[in-house]
Amino acid sequence: MFSYRHAFHAGNHADVLKHFIQVQLHKYMNQKDTAYTYIDTHAGAGVYALDSAQAVRSGEYIDGIGRLWGRDDLPPALAEYVDLVGKLNPSGKLRWYPGSPWVADAEARLEDRLRLFELHPADIRVLAENVRKLEAHHAEQGERARGRRILVEHADGFHGLKALLPPPSRRALVLIDPPYEVKLDYKHVRDALDEALKRFPAGMYAVWYPVLQRMESRQFADRLKRLPAKEWLHVTLSVAGPRADGNGLHSSGMFILNPPYTLEATLRETMPYLVQVLGQDSGATFRIEKGTQVTGTVPALGGPRKPVGNARRASPLSGGGSLRLPGQPFGDDPRPRKEGEGAEGRPRTPRTEAKPTPRGPAKRSGSGRS
Ligand code: SAM
Asked: What pLDDT digit, counting tens, does each position of 190-211 carry?
């Protein structure tokens, strides 16, 4: 159960996707004066040394944050994220990588609250120590929050989330980022979100997940679309095409329920660059789709399938506004595609997906979470 250590994967392409989006979610939450609660159901260790034995052994960060570090042509959202990583590395040498708790601490305001859950017996100790150092640093700067700004709990984040909703200020940003080592994590995420939306429908919920060939992963996003949230936004980043043996994490996704209305434009602007810079072979690509809840549709008997019940109107951002039905494949279908064919076998329009720009020879994709 405790075999997963994020230290092996810190700063890889999946962390880049997750954390640059996390920065944007905080920036949006910060636009309103009312304080909010940030809940990190799977916090990890908080900060990672990129010269640790684990990080060096996997080398995953080299093809993630390593490829963005020092670039002067970053789109604004990536520049904000890389600046944040830069604050941890003032010498200019990339030695430390911020986990989601550090990102939250850096972006949230003094009046906001951070609630962090971690189960691993070693990582919870590292996390608690990192938070202690952060608080000492804030105190040195004369920044004092009223009450406990950051709480760390050695507990199951799925259960912890339930107990914290609705938050006192009625504003919350939730990050759900389990290891997905066990298939049950997919179900736990769905169940936790279902419950969370009942308790607090207005919350902003962000879920990271690995795009793998296993069934649970392939069906995951379509299942999240059926949750009773008003809106969702879904983005995937593939840095390489799937390998024949099915191993390796080449692709991951972020699924955001009740997303900022500004995020879609930010993703459109940022994802082509990420594909270009992080892409490892001609399978590198991204996909963005969004949807809103459709209510009151009457299911048709026979004939073409129509959305029913909680089905959402989903539009891949091609401008075509096609209707995707629950159970239909999303753009992460591992089947090989013909040149010029989109994820659903339709010709790509230039705005749908980045035309992948292969960058150098194909490389081993990171081992990632599986
Ligand atoms: N969110 C972190 C970040 O972005 O820096 C990375 C988290 S890592 C992918 C997942 C973490 O969840 C691991 O540290 C693991 O020990 C922890 N974990 C696994 N199951 C958990 C559970 N049920 N509740 C809380 N933490 C859990």
From this structure: 999 999 999 999 999 999 999 9
